[in-house]
Fold Succinate dehydrogenase/fumarate reductase iron-sulfur subunit.
Amino acid sequence: MNLTLRVWRQPNRQTEGRIVDYKVKDISPEMSFLEMLDVLNEDLLHQGQDPVAFDHDCREGICGSCDLFINGRSHGPEKGTTTCQLHMRKFKDGDTITIEPWRANSFPVNKDLSVDRSAFDRIIQAGGYVSVNTGGAPDGNEIPIPKDIADRAFEAATCIGCGACVAACKNASAMLFVSAKVSQLALLPQGQVERATRVENMVAQMDIEGFGACTNIGSCAAECPVGISLENIAILNREFLTAKAASNNLA
């Protein structure tokens, strides 16, 4: 396939970016989207130009680092698929593809298509963990957990922290991400000790980072590559209100 790529180029955070058009030729339909970008960068290097910066790591749909906005959609046109697992057979010969970074004030652009998502790390550091010292690692079946609870916790834990929910939301809200992390630990017995402080601290940090408010549009869940459910946002709201009521801190 021969394609026209309209790529966001931005040298750094301080410099204003712009869309630049490139042509790529002889792209195999079996290539992944990132492999196609590798071809583009090889061509740019051969021409003595600066390659396009983009985030990637595992290329297996696990790490969540391949954050690209493709033709106006997080991770591209295929539902339930990360950018690295998106294949070029989803496009046609002669197509024009617009490729942009995540658009959110809380995700500043480092360079080109690479954005700084450390805000997510700071939210996790605020409470998205279990810090209680339990000694040695217990046997796998030592703490019995009902299967339906284990399944729900696992489904929440599948969040890969890519930020597609933020990019898809008109308010740049991080509620789906935060709710998945809160729900996962709130459902499990290991997470009960810090349950109240966890949700208060994580929501407070989310607000500090400047993410927008949730207005229940649902675009976050629609564009999530691993299918995190909106139900988790309801769980987060319940956990937050319960924690505030218990601490008599309803401000």
Notes: Residues 231-246 form the longest helix (16 residues). The domain at 3-100 is CATH 3.10.20.30 (Ubiquitin-like (UB roll)).
